[in-house]
Amino acid sequence: MPTRTVSAGRRLPLVVTSDGELLDELLRLAAAAGTEVEVAADPAAARSRWSAAPLVLVGADQAEACLRARLAHRTSLVLVGRAGHVDPGWEIADLVGAQHVAVLPSAEPWVVDRLGETVPSLGAGGPGRVLTVIGGRGGAGASVLAGGLAITAARRGLRTLLVDADPLGGGLDLVLGWEELEGLRWPALRQADGRVDPPSLVRALPSRDDLVMISWDRGDPVHLPVDAMAAALDAGRRGRDVMVVDLPRQLDEAAVIALQAADLGLLIVPAELRATAAAARVARSAAPHCPNLSLVVRGPAPGGLRAREVSRSLDLPLVGTLRPEPGLRRALERGEAPAASGHGPLATLCQRIIREVTGTPVAGAA
Ligand SMILES: Nc1ncnc2c1ncn2[C@@H]1O[C@H](COP(=O)(O)OP(=O)(O)OP(=O)(O)O)[C@@H](O)[C@H]1O
Ligand SMILES: [Mg+2]
Fold first, then answer.
1. Would you kindly state where each structural domain of the chain is located, as residue ranges?
2. Is the CB of 149 under 6 A from ligand 1?
3. Staple partner for 128: which of 8, 240, 261, 294, CB 3.0–4.6 Å?
4. Tens digit of pLDDT for each residue in 332-352?
């Protein structure tokens, strides 16, 4: 089971070249633009991704091969060459159907701009990214991971909504040390439905800086209506940059629609045999609703079970591992929010996941 980079279902620009030096140049420009790219050495390797990629950069070395391969006509197609090497002339560009010819290094800024345009914009009301977290067994660390992801995103200045969707959990407000904060909780919001406009929903919630939260009060556990979750998802996607949902292991209808909306679903599993067996049952119920379900394995591993073995046995891609962090347990007991210091295994993993899901660098990232 390969380790996967998280791209939240985002389609990446495609580079078609077998010119190693040109590829190095283009990878450098992609990094400057804040995006990953997919790479194909020739048109045969490019064919399956050719039409869906938001931008295709064809190296001058592959122009004729692309012409012979009769790839479909498409927009956002650029022929790229290096000054003093194979000349990417307009004639061949025309035949291939490229709208632009870029010669490096002079066209570098232009190429960075084109690559940058493929990165989803977060500030301008673009759709908020939805992440869900579910534990492979009780006490797996799902709520702590959900809290850590939300705190990390908000530290980056991303407008974040954290949702506690587990009626029987210990309460995410307690995980963050927010139990005294004013604002509406689920029981008061259960009437919410699609008619609630996202800004007023968000304004009614407990908040601190860029983070707002929907959690439970200390009353009796209540069922979470699917309409209330639909309203929360709407608020998250339309009104926030990032939304993190802490899910119950026993999926209800509300949890199912959150999984269906997720750009990335995380299943967190302690590195233990019985936890893996329990997680297999959770994965079987969650995976059909979430094609992006991925695994986080949390240490310690008392029997030496490796993250890759857990990944293989659950047939889920591994997003990351968490080393044991005894200091975190103590900090949580003191009411400190997870990942708030920006240091340690949890903070580092959360920074990487937020960066990869949103395509933005995270302040304080390792
Ligand atoms: N990354 C971590 N490092 C160290 N300890 C952790 C970590 N995550 C969780 N814990 C410990 O495990 C406990 C349970 O974590 P958490 O509440 O996040 O689990 P959960 O999967 O949400 O459990 P539940 O089944 O109750 O919803 C925490 O109170 C904390 O002591
Ligand atoms: Mg929990």
1. 14-116, 129-358
2. no
3. 240
4. 988 899 999 999 999 999 999
Beta bridge partners of 242: 129, 160
Cα of first residue to Cα of last residue in the chain, in angstroms, is 26
Beta bridge partners of 38: 14
Mean pLDDT of the chain: 87
pTM over 0.85: no
The percent of residues in the chain predicted with pLDDT above 90, rounded, is 57
Looking at 54-103, list the stretches that DSSP marks H as alpha helix, in order from N- to C-terminal side.
Answer: 63-69, 90-96
Please list, in sequence order, all residues whose beta carbon lies within 8 angstroms of the beta carbon of residue 31, skipping any fewer than 6 positions away: none
Span from the CA of 319 to the centroid of ligand 2 (angstroms): 20
Tokens (6 digits) for 205: 């919630």
Nearest-Å Rg of the Cα atoms of the chain is 23
Q: Categorize the per-residue pLDDT at 123 as very low, low, confident or very high, splitting at 50, 70 and 90.
A: very low
Q: Quick: pLDDT tens for 183-220.
A: 888 887 766 554 456 677 788 899 999 999 999 988 88
SS3 assignment, position 340: coil
Q: What are phi and psi of 272, to 5 degrees?
A: -135, 150
Do 150 and 246 meet the contact criterion of CB atoms below 8 Å apart?
A: no
Q: How far is ligand 2, taken at its centre, from the CA of residue 173, in Å?
A: 11
Q: Is 164 in the pocket of ligand 1 (CB under 6 A)?
A: no
Q: Say how many Å lie between the CA of residue 169 and the centre of ligand 2.
A: 5
Ligand 1 site, residue 270, Cβ cutoff 6 A:
no
Q: Class assignment of domain 129-358?
A: alpha beta
pLDDT tens, residue by residue, 282-316: 999 999 989 899 999 999 999 999 999 999 999 99
- Residue 344 beta carbon below 6 angstroms from any ligand 1 atom: no
